[in-house]
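Notebook p. 47: complex prediction with pyridoxal-5'-phosphate.
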Amino acid sequence: MVRGEQAVDQDRIIYLDNNATTMVAPEVLGAMQPFFCERYGNASSMHRFGGDVRHDIDEARANVAHLIGATPEEIVFTSCGTESDNTAVVGTLRANPDKRHIVTSKVEHPAIRGLCQYLTRERYEVTEVPVNRQGELDLDFLADSIRPDTALVSVMWANNETGVIFPVGEVAEIAHANGVVFHTDAVQAVGRIPINLAETPVDLLSLSGHKIHAPKGIGVLYVRRGTKFAPFIIGGHQERNRRGGTENTASIVGLGKAAELAAERIVDENTRVKTLRDTLEERILASAPDCFVNGARDERLPNTSNISFEYVEGEAILLKLDQLGVCASSGSACTSGSLEPSHVMRAMGVPFTAAHGSIRFSLSVYNTEEEISFVADHVPDIITELRAISPYGRK
Ligand code: PLP
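Predicted complex, structure tokens below:
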């Protein structure tokens, strides 16, 4: 395909959808490979062939613990971020059977929000704390929502759609001042911003491998020592009786390697990647009229930019980007034929026309200056072209 004078390489993918999932790092794949056909023993076996694998799992546990400032005993391997989130909520409710109230936010991922909505049908009560136009949490509302029967406060560390970072340290203190357990869904935050649980008094934290260049299907629930918690998946004695099921050794080892890499790359993420993100954002805002960034600009993940383009549909922009090999996401969910703005955009009060035209670009350490330049060159043309045929009024 030729756009103007510029030939577009049909095979090239520019991947700017890293909040959806990330590429498995080659180092991670290399670390995992021996655990399929060579070192495939069960870590719980009495024989050395299996038992030796336990050391690799322990090493991975130590690497994950190091990345978030935890101790290895506080790390429970799960199958994904969703399982970690479900385990945190259900495990806390099971451990506190007299308490039937949960405080959470209006902008949580469905792994928390969907579960909480389900629990209301099981006669639990849920309070969703609102956010403002910048996507920032209303801390006074949160503090006022806590009741004597509140079992848990669960608030995400960083939002997957906007990248907005919540002050989880403060939220943890509010929860603790009221004697309530605090969980944070840190699936988007881990590996992207420094996290030190030795200093931030979180009780439970969820993370997911596939957001930090490990494979899909592996996650972690951090459980602070002393936290009252009952297992969600009940079976064997794995993970110190906190999560039954034979260990997914290859993926655990992969996650350990990914955690090691993330700890090394966190500076690059917060300098070079952040600069790439800022450049992309500034160039788009400067060259396309009627567009703006959704979410607080400062307290934000360094890799995420969510931009609303008025008078255009996000899906149309995505299709045009896709034709150029550029992968991004939109802020509306195409369900049952209707394009509904996401619950995050609605909670922030983003006007319908702007929410409809919102695009999330999410970068990783693998993106280059040249890729960002290519995208910044093409987005304004795409917007002009689509506005010329827009059904939303302005041409
Ligand atoms: N929480 C957040 C904030 C997420 O962004 C995601 C995935 O997109 C999840 C939880 C679910 O993680 P997983 O895909 O590992 O189940």
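Notes: Residues 26-262 form a domain with the Aspartate Aminotransferase; domain 2 fold (CATH 3.40.640.10). The CA atoms of residues 78 and 219 lie 5 Å apart.
Next step: compare against the earlier run before touching the bench.
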